[in-house]
Amino acid sequence: MDQLTFDILHADGRHETTTAQAPRIVIGSGAHCDVRLAPDQAAFEHVAIDDHPEGPVMRSLAASPAVVLGGAPLTSHSLGASTTFSIGATLVEIKRAAFGAEAQSKPLGAAMIAKLVVVALLAVGILAASQRNKEQAAAAPPKMPELFAKAVTECPRTDPAEARVLADDNRALADGARERSPFDPREARSAVRSYELAAVCYRRANAAAAAEESATSAKRMREETTLDFRARRVRLERVLLVRDYEVAAQDVAVLRALTDGEQGEYTRWLASVTQDIKNQKVEKSQ
Fold it and tell me: What is the pLDDT along the chain (286 residues), one digit of tens a residue?
């Protein structure tokens, strides 16, 4: 079987990437599984992917929670270049190596992944809503805030030596912010700006290699943060529909941190959702 890459967005917000290659690959919570998911999200053996002359075939091994692909429960599916499905609040994308590094190395790869995430999770939300007869949370406003301002294009220092010092300082700041970003999502936005400033100042200092490295880091950080924002935004709407307030609380906290300082309908909606979650927790404790 081709080597398969699994991009996983866990229910607790963690991102994980793993690869597997075998005649039969099992996804589940068991210790023997090739792809491990949390026990509260997946059965001991939940999904199997078997080798086939025409390409790998994926099928569901457990009925609950349902494996949802394309808005419907999975029965059997032949893997293409990329397949995205969900198990409960866990999202998995499978990419086949047989379709080559060409497809995976395109500059818009992260944007395409984000699009798949949005489509898959919207489908899950629709399916869950149709299966449950309960009060729905107010819909999120359609207009999203901009996470990042326009890219930095000018270095405030004209002297090459001064520009080099400023570039070094900002790259160090960006590296530190990137390390802290998993614990404080606001740091991701700071990291992008500092990397961009470092890049333009390195160019002013005629340090081409350092400039390219900083620009690449800024681009990667921007794409990863945007992908995380989009995935959490859509998942939040889905888990609110099914009243999974534990996961909702995690996602809304990250979304509020990423939009910190922004004003608009969406940030006001997030504040309202935060209060609703607190009210639900109070009611549950009484």
Answer: 889 999 998 888 788 899 999 999 999 998 899 999 988 889 999 999 999 888 899 999 988 888 888 777 888 899 988 888 888 888 899 998 766 544 444 444 555 555 555 555 555 554 554 444 344 455 778 788 888 878 889 999 999 999 999 999 999 999 999 999 888 989 999 999 999 999 999 999 999 999 999 999 999 999 888 888 888 888 888 788 777 888 888 889 999 999 988 888 999 999 998 988 888 876 666 6
Query: Does the predicted model carry a pTM greater than 0.85?
Result: no
Give residue for tokens 């945007």. Answer: 226
Quickly name the fold that domain 4-131 has.
Answer: Tumour Suppressor Smad4 (2.60.200)
Place of tokens 């997946």: 42
Residue 9's SS3 state is strand
Residues 6+ apart with CB under 8 A from 172: none
